[in-house]
């Protein structure tokens, strides 16, 4: 009963902290939109390319960079400052959880929460990435049509983005906002491609850079890129269909040991407590947890290898 109450309080504190931080993030986003609107209306001085500071340049801390990239890939537009606050709140909750639940239960709860959150964000990011890749050929075709009418690449991409569905629309609308603030389009596209792990957008950035420096026809490059994306997408679908049984087996191998552990802990609460009290049992538990985590990581990398083809 006490452990359940403690877990409820921890979850309540985490939820409350997350709500407060996301409300602040929403207020900051509205403030930035107002500033952008005033710039576009000419009420503020236009920011040049030399004064533009991309979000990626603000990420000096590797942990903060990793967390920001993970959230941005999943579709969140939260700023690095807000992500840093969230990380500090979560870090402050770790010793509190260990004090309330004890070392073994606390570490187990923290591990489950971190693994679950990472798995959900990774899954959402992967699904979003697949949708972007599926929508990219139509977006490039629309861009090519507007480009053929004599518009610049920036104008063509902005016009195509306004007609695109989710999640491609907010991605390229963000690109358009940064370009209007003075950032070179090839730099913005390269940053987006790196963050979201989209090699096709990186190819667009290289094409835009070459076109800006040496000239040439972007329409032929875009047409070849469209054909490459569609051919690769068809091959990726065939690969996923052929490996469906293997990927399901990997999920079972990752979930079943955790489920058995939870079942034993619920049915016989003293089982793991007695093992933890013994030196040999403690070593066995630690080794089993480490091996399980490593096994899940290996299986996850094997599953990701079938998606990296896109």
Question: Please, could you describe this protein's structure?
Answer:
The protein is mostly helical and 310 residues long. The model is unreliable at 36-52 (pLDDT under 50). It starts with a helix and ends in a 5-residue tail after the last helix. Helices cover 82% and strands 0% of the residues. Helix 4 (103-148) packs antiparallel against helix 9 (218-242). The protein is built from 12 helices and no strands.
Order of helices and strands: HHHHHHHHHHHH
Give the number of helices: 12
Strand content: under 5%
Q: Please identify the structural class as seen in this structure.
A: mainly alpha
Q: Radius of gyration, Cα only, in angstroms?
A: 24 Å
Distance between the termini: 49 Å
What is the residue-mean pLDDT, rounded to a whole number? 77
Outline:
elongated
User: Low-confidence runs (pLDDT<50, min 5 residues)?
Assistant: 36-52
Tell me the number of strands.
0
Q: Can you summarize the main beta sheet?
A: none
Percentage of residues assigned to helices: over 70%
Main features:
12 helices; mainly alpha; 0% strand; single chain; 82% helix; 310 residues
């Amino acid at each position: 009963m006490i452990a359940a109450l403690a877990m409820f309080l921890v979850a309540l504190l985490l939820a409350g902290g997350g709500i407060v931080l996301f409300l602040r993030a929403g207020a900051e986003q509205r403030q930035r939109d107002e500033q952008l609107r005033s710039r576009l209306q000419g009420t503020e001085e236009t920011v040049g390319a030399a004064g533009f500071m991309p979000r990626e340049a603000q990420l000096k801390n590797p942990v903060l960079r990793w967390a920001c990239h993970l959230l941005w890939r999943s579709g969140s537009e939260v700023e690095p400052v807000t992500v840093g606050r969230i990380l500090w709140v979560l870090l402050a909750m770790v010793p509190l959880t260990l004090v309330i639940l004890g070392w073994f239960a606390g570490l187990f709860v923290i591990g489950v929460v971190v693994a679950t959150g990472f798995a959900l964000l990774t899954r959402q990011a992967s699904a979003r990435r697949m949708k972007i890749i599926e929508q990219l050929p139509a977006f490039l075709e629309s861009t090519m049509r507007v480009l053929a009418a004599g518009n610049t690449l920036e104008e063509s991409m902005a016009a195509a983005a306004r007609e695109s569905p989710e999640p491609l629309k907010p991605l390229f609308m963000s690109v358009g906002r940064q370009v209007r603030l003075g950032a070179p389009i090839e730099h913005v596209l390269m940053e987006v491609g790196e963050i979201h792990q989209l090699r096709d957008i990186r190819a667009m950035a290289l094409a835009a850079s070459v076109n800006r420096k040496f000239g040439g026809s972007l329409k032929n490059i875009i047409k070849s890129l469209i054909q490459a994306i569609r051919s690769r997408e068809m091959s990726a679908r065939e690969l996923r269909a052929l490996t469906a049984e293997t990927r399901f087996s990997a999920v079972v191998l990752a979930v079943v040991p955790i489920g058995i552990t939870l079942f034993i802990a619920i049915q016989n609460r003293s089982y793991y407590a007695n093992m933890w009290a013994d030196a040999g049992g403690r070593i066995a538990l630690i080794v089993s947890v480490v091996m399980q985590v490593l096994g899940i990581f290996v299986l996850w990398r094997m599953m990701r290898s079938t998606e990296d083809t896109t």
